[in-house]
Design goal:
Chain A: GO terms for molecular function: proton-transporting ATPase activity, rotational mechanism. The complex is a heterodimer of chains A (161) and B (90). Chain A is elongated, with a radius of gyration of 20 Å. Chain A is built from five helices and no strands. Classes of the chains: A mainly alpha (161), B mainly alpha (90). Chains A and B meet through α2, α3 and α5 of A and α1 and α2 of B.
């Protein structure tokens, strides 16, 4: 390593922002995914008392909520992979990583909330009217795409270094 | 539309097997594809920069994730047709 200590461009606290970006990416995504899983899980539990044959169709909101957490995991792994110690890690990269983590984290939180509420109402409705299933899937996909937008912005931010 | 008995259901164990199989598939395959594609294809064969190869492998992993999710939705959607026809009871 050529430079020996922190400089003005890359201060000692620079990696703090990057670490917080990686942490917030997975924390907030997991928060959204947990809410989505729990909320649609209560719907599945209430629905499958009467229609247990629909369980396999009703698991879909839970799987989609899990995918939100995988978005956060991908960004957290990307950020964690490029963390270094201060002389090579500039403050600018720290800010970029914090922004990327917050983008995917809060988008995942929002998408997880949407998936939870839609999944709860959707599986209860599908038990009474099976033709609702297609509509539920479409609404779930639109809810999940919100998290995907956050992932796209996060990856786009991540490449700016 | 209430259904009496369990005439047109798949057996419990078969449903469990299918769901577990697809859930493990959806969780493991994208994560494996991320590291597999990164280490073998982008770093090994194409020799890209670390940042570029990470981004491309992340994109590959997300695409694979959606393909596996689509397979599960397709399977769940077709489940009703695959189930044995209701047995007529007199």
């Amino acid at each position: 390593m050529s430079a020996s200590g922190p400089t003005v461009e890359s201060p000692i606290y620079g990696p703090f922002f990057g670490v917080m970006g990686a942490a917030s990416a997975i924390i907030f995504s997991a928060l959204g995914a947990a809410y989505g899983t729990a909320k649609s899980g209560t719907g599945i539990a209430a629905m499958s008392v009467m229609r247990p044959e629909l369980i396999m169709k009703s698991i879909i909101p839970v799987v989609m909520a899990g995918i939100i957490a995988i978005y956060g995991l991908v960004v957290a792994v990307l950020i964690a992979g490029s963390l270094e110690s201060p002389p090579t890690y500039t403050l600018f990269r720290g800010f970029i990583h914090l922004g990327a983590g917050l983008a995917v984290g809060f988008s995942g939180l929002a998408a997880g909330f949407a998936i939870g509420i839609v999944g709860d109402a959707g599986v209860r409705g599908t038990a009474q009217q099976p033709r609702l299933f297609v509509g539920m899937i479409l609404i779930l996909i639109f809810a999940e795409v919100l998290g995907l937008y956050g992932l796209i912005v996060a990856i786009y931010l991540y490449t700016k270094q | 539309m209430m259904i009496e008995g369990r005439a047109n259901e798949l057996p419990d164990f078969q449903v469990f097997q299918t769901v577990i199989k697809y859930c493990l598939f959806i969780i493991i395959v994208p994560v494996l594809s991320f590291f597999f594609v990164k280490s073998l294809v982008f770093d090994g064969v194409l020799r890209l920069e670390p940042v570029t190869s990470s981004v491309y492998s992340a994109i590959v992993a997300v695409v694979v994730l959606h393909v596996t999710l689509g397979m599960y939705i397709f399977r769940a959607y077709n489940e009703a047709e695959k189930a044995p026809k209701p047995v007529k009871k007199d």
